[in-house]
């Protein structure tokens, strides 16, 4: 745990950088003279290269060494943060965020892979719990710290100062990278560069379409991008299925996806992060537009949620020791209950003001944050424990790709519900309607968690990687 602190800081920084883009977006229009669609390009520029680069970066880490790739990515994150903060205009900022997304994609899968391969049993459980807490804290910290920096009346504050803060975690993590164990590369197979392109281009199209669609009212070309992305990814999968039996290099070996835990875990990842992406987007819109809060007030409103998430993430081994294989089911049930209560409070509290709603949210947010962390932590362990250590970078890339694409999917689909219904229902009741859809995704997550518990998913597929049990982080596989 002590030796892997740079990895935890790097994981915090990767999600912090993503979150900073969301909280600064409302200020870009007035400062850069950009309309809603152009501001969406800034967000999409980061999201598309982040999502598209995760799997290739994970494989490169497996092939050439994860510490080397991590150091390179951290340097790139810091430099691109400075480029983005110094942007004289919109298109400079878009280009900088595109590069920063690619840099963050290099960092993220290495963090998960290094933690997964740094120990076993209780040590690995503590590492995964710390990863859950740090990466989740980065997401919320981006909203809180970004809002605070933008509220400062200082030179280079505002959105430029907020964007520049994303370099701080990268620099801190870089200072400790040399302390990490320099494990030798775990694969001799040459990279499948053609497969990387076949995966990256459709992913770029899919995430771009999902990111730009809501901001541009879904013109035909955004739908075409989504369709091209889906068909392109299907073609990529068919290509990989042909290449693997022939003994040719592959980016994602179909055989690596055979473990039921990995397939079910990735499906659960889509549901969890589609719901969370929608919630975070709806919360920002509701509090800033519907309730009239400043970015600082909106960010501070998440304090209870964030604190509960971090605390539950750090105590995940104890939580899973208490609930065992039922941890994710219990957490999903609690999250669904919390969403229902928040929805009822928003519906009944219509017209009673921001102070009343924020007060209710501080109480309910404790339950939501703890439940969210108790889904996220065991889910990370499920996906990572389902593959051998030699392809841990691939598993990290798959998990984070599913996470990022699902965040965009949730924003594009569920996230637009409150804004659509607000003119007729009012913001409080429109927000409650959006929460109702998230209850459905949470129930589906619960059903898959129940199915996962009933399947034979406890061992890594090749039998030579003793690793943490997928759902019980406090025990060793035997």
TrEMBL record:
Residues 3-453 form the Major facilitator superfamily (MFS) profile domain. Keywords: Membrane, Transmembrane, Transmembrane helix. Residues 465-478 have a biased composition (Polar residues). It is found in: Cell membrane. The keyword Kinase does not apply. It comes from the Bacteria. PROSITE patterns: MFS (PS50850). The chain crosses the membrane at residues 39-57, 69-92, 156-175, 195-212, 218-239, 260-279, 299-316, 328-348, 354-371, 391-418, 430-449. It is a multi-pass membrane protein. The keyword Transmembrane applies. Residues 456-478 are annotated as: Disordered. This is MFS transporter. It comes from Nonomuraea maheshkhaliensis.
């Amino acid at each position: 745990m002590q030796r892997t602190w740079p990895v935890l800081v790097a994981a915090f920084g990767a999600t912090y950088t993503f979150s900073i883009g969301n909280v600064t977006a409302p200020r870009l229009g007035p400062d850069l003279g950009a309309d809603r669609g152009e501001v969406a390009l800034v967000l999409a520029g980061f999201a598309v290269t982040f999502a598209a680069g995760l799997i290739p970066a994970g494989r490169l880490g497996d092939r050439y060494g994860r510490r080397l790739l991590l150091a390179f990515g951290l340097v790139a994150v810091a430099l691109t943060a400075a480029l983005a903060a110094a942007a004289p205009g919109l298109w400079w900022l878009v280009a900088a965020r595109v590069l920063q997304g690619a840099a963050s994609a290099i960092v993220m899968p290495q963090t998960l892979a290094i933690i997964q391969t740094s120990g076993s049993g209780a040590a690995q459980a503590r590492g995964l719990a710390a990863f859950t807490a740090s990466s989740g804290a980065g997401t919320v910290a981006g909203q809180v710290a970004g809002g605070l920096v933008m509220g400062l009346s200082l030179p280079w504050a505002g959105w430029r100062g907020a964007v520049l803060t994303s370099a701080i975690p990268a620099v801190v993590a870089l200072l400790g990278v040399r302390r990490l164990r320099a494990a030798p590369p775990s694969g001799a197979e040459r990279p499948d560069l053609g497969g990387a392109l076949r995966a990256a281009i459709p992913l770029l199209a899919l995430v771009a379409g999902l990111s730009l669609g809501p901001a541009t009212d879904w013109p035909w070309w955004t739908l075409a991008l989504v369709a091209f992305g889906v068909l392109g990814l299907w073609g990529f999968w068919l290509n990989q299925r042909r290449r693997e039996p022939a003994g040719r290099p592959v980016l994602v070996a179909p055989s690596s996806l055979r473990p039921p835990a990995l397939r079910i875990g990735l499906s659960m990842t889509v549901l969890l992060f589609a719901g969370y992406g929608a919630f975070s987007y709806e919360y920002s819109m509701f509090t800033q537009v519907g309730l009239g809060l400043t970015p600082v007030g909106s960010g501070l409103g998440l304090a209870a949620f964030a604190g509960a998430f971090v605390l539950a993430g750090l105590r995940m081994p104890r939580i899973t020791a208490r609930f065992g294989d039922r941890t994710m089911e219990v957490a999903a049930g609690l999250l669904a209950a919390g969403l229902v209560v928040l929805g009822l409070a928003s519906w009944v509290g219509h017209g009673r003001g921001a102070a009343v709603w924020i007060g209710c949210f501080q109480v309910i947010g404790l339950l939501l944050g703890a439940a969210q962390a108790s889904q996220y932590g065991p889910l990370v362990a499920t996906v990572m424990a389902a593959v051998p250590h030699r392809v841990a970078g691939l598993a990290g890339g798959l998990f984070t790709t599913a996470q990022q694409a699902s965040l965009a999917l949730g924003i594009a689909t569920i996230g637009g519900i409150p804004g659509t219904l607000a003119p007729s229902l009012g913001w409080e009741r429109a927000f409650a309607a959006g929460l109702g859809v998230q209850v459905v995704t949470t129930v589906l997550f619960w059903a898959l968690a129940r199915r996962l518990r009933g399947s034979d998913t406890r061992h890594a597929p090749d039998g030579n990687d003793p690793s943490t049990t997928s759902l019980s982080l406090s025990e060793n596989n035997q």
